[in-house]
Amino acid sequence: MKLGFIGTGALTSAIVTGLKSAADNSVSVLLSPRNEEIAAGLALRYPDVRVAPDNQAVLDSCDTIMLAVRPQIAHDVLAELQFRRDHRVVSLIATLSRKEVAALIAPVEHVTKALPMPMIAHRQGTTIICPPDRHMAALFGRLGKVIEVEDSSEFDALSVVTATFATYFKYLDTIHGWLKGHGVADARARDYIVTLYKALANAPETTPDTGFMHLAEDYATRGGINEQIFRELTARNVFDIFAESLDGVYRRISPGAAPRIGPLS
Ligand SMILES: NC(=O)c1ccc[n+]([C@@H]2O[C@H](COP(=O)([O-])OP(=O)(O)OC[C@H]3O[C@@H](n4cnc5c(N)ncnc54)[C@H](OP(=O)(O)O)[C@@H]3O)[C@@H](O)[C@H]2O)c1
């Protein structure tokens, strides 16, 4: 496989870093020249990673192409390029549907959407792929877990999960700020939160048959301090509001999608 990237930014950097730190790191990579600094840095760091003179040279030399430009410029960038029918193209552009991308890169027959996350650089996390594609599943499988889905609405629904990361860190930041406000040293507060939440993150994997709500109930001892916060936030509809935000992101990602089926469990 000769793998080319159109757009060399944060996500491309993460994918190339992950690929080149995997046991089988033999894949040959050709990068488009922007961002110049990131592309030059990757080429310097890894063997068999080169920088092409322009975007078209990436297409002309590679059989597999990852599209990794921002959605705002994707139309302009892609419209200028000559794709071949036999290119295998993977779009990483989060907010463009596979159909929209396919229309922009005609006559390519094989177009896949994939959603890797930056933690792929450390070969962690999961990449979702639609439709199922064994070549891409094998490639991303070197970099973490892969979920292949048939249905684009399901792909879009799964994508919504990735919109919750910032809120997760804000949640931890609230605890951190509260601890500091009560005189706990910054580093000690951070370390305590990080180690506890790392351990908590393992709980669903160590008890795979236990639902999240069941885990919540396990921790919310009746009359205890976990139950207190859980009850207070629930009473203030914090979780309903959160679910409404998930709905809003889903509508943005998938404008024609059907509404949520029933209330939250
Ligand atoms: N980052 C994520 O967590 C993430 C996750 C999932 C999906 N995605 C998707 O992945 C895509 C890339 O995201 P990103 O975070 O890597 O963005 P990014 O860091 O902004 O990278 C995009 C790169 O495209 C380059 N570029 C600009 N104009 C170009 C052109 N005409 N031809 C080729 N390259 C050009 C930019 O170079 P300059 O710096 O020189 O402008 C920039 O380095 C987006 O569509 C995003 O939706 C990102």
Topology:
Blueprint: E1 2-6, H1 10-21, E2 28-31, H2 36-45, E3 49-51, H3 55-61, E4 64-67, H4 71-79, E5 88-91, H5 98-104, E6 110-115, E7 126-130, H6 134-141, E8 145-148, H7 152-160, H8 165-181, H9 186-206, H10 212-219, H11 225-235, H12 238-253
Description of the structure:
The chain has 265 residues and is an alpha/beta fold. It folds into two domains: 2-150, 3-Layer(aba) Sandwich (Rossmann fold), CATH 3.40.50; 163-253, Orthogonal Bundle (ProC C-terminal domain-like fold), CATH 1.10.3730.10. Helix content is 51%, strand content 13%. It has helices spanning 10-21, 36-45, 55-61, 71-79, 98-104, 134-141, 152-160, 165-181, 186-206, 212-219, 225-235, 238-253, and strands at residues 2-6, 28-31, 49-51, 64-67, 88-91, 110-115, 126-130, 145-148. The protein has an eight-stranded mixed β-sheet, with helices on both faces. Helix 8 (165-181) crosses helix 9. The chain binds NADP nicotinamide-adenine-dinucleotide phosphate (NAP). Residues 6-12, 32, 34-35, 55, 68-71, 73, 77, 92-94, 115, 117-118 line the site of NADP nicotinamide-adenine-dinucleotide phosphate. NADP nicotinamide-adenine-dinucleotide phosphate (NAP) binds next to helix 1 and helix 4.
